[in-house]
Amino acid sequence: MTVYQATVSAPVNIACIKYWGKRDTKLILPTNSSLSVTLDQDHLRSTTTSRADPSFDKDKLWLNGKEESIQPGGRLSTCISEMKRLRASLELQNSDLPKLSTFPVHIASSNNFPTAAGLASSASGFAALVASLASLYELPATPSELSLIARQGSGSACRSLFGGFVAWEMGSAPDGSDSLAVEVAPREHWPDIHALICVVSDDKKGTSSTSGMQRTVETSTLLQHRIAQVVPARMSAITKAILQRDFPEFARITMQDSNQFHSVALDTDPPIFYLNDVSRAIIALITEYNRTAGTIKAAYTYDAGPNAVIYAPKENIKEIVELLLHYFPQAEPFADPFALGVDKQG
Ligand code: 2P0
């Protein structure tokens, strides 16, 4: 008997221009475009195996070994049914194909990074889920086409379908057909940039991204300014900086955008605080490091939590790790820098 099964993994991505706000919560259409770097270390990935079998009684999903319910109409269910729809249209074109679209699927997904790393797993998780179903169904879809579906699982997931430097173009179509991820530059274009993940706290965050960003959309006037006046120019400027491998410019924009994202969180009613005192001390340290160097040698960025991600050219990583360990000697996780690219120690 033929076994229909596929296993695919997808990496974590960290945004330089932040996604924060939806104009359509069901389709997950953002209020602004965003841009990220996909981390290419083997140990920061979600791996998903999908299997289709007519003997299964229904679709099921296991996350890190624990079964999760698939709510009808929910994000998981949407991604699975969209992928089945693509398979069904392929089967219509080629009647020799087995009718996998009619079989229930069992999906098992796991992350190889500890939850303690404080990294959101929804981006890599939904990207891996969609990629594994695309492989199972042998869909001739491009990463951008798959990103349309991963986006409906979790917005940031659409960017994890590509490696390297990736933009999520917000699009304007009401049906979301042009809200997708595109490659800005492959990883090989700029292998010198590394990322250092500094675990400040592994506590579960107080406000989830999904509910936090909606509160921001409903209450923050600063967000409206950000959407209209700030992000479009930053998207062009950072794309240019990436294409020109201009680190100081890339870093300046990345830090400004992290700061503005946390400002719109603070401008939300009631306010949302993701940074803590240690996060702010790291911002001060990197600022001082750059000031004394007379040039920008490192960029910090923070997502919906207190943990820092520091982007820097490879040659600066060792110095930055030593600096962090000097000022935060108790912060043992700094000793394990996750380098982007060629090696673990930067
Ligand atoms: C980002 N974040 O661009 C931003 C920066 C957090 C801060 O994408 O509701 O988990 O699933 O679409 O993708 C977090 O948002 O939210 C996020 P949903 P998601 O990476």
What does it look like?
This protein is an alpha+beta fold and 346 residues long. The chain has 2 domains: 186 residues, Ribosomal Protein S5, domain 2 (2-Layer Sandwich); 143 residues, GHMP kinase, C-terminal domain (Alpha-Beta Plaits, 2-Layer Sandwich). It is built from 8 helices and 14 strands. The strands form 4 sheets. It has a 5-stranded mixed β-sheet, covered by helices on one side. A hairpin with a 5-residue loop joins strand 13 and strand 14. The termini are far apart. Bound molecules: ligand 2P0. Ligand 2P0 binds next to helix 4. It is an enzyme of class 4 (lyase). One of its GO terms (molecular function) is ATP binding. Pathway: Isoprenoid biosynthesis; isopentenyl diphosphate biosynthesis via mevalonate pathway; isopentenyl diphosphate from (R)-mevalonate: step 3/3.
* Whole-angstrom Rg: 20 Å
Query: What would you call the shape?
Result: globular
CATH architecture title of the largest domain: 2-Layer Sandwich
List low-pLDDT spans.
Answer: 333-346
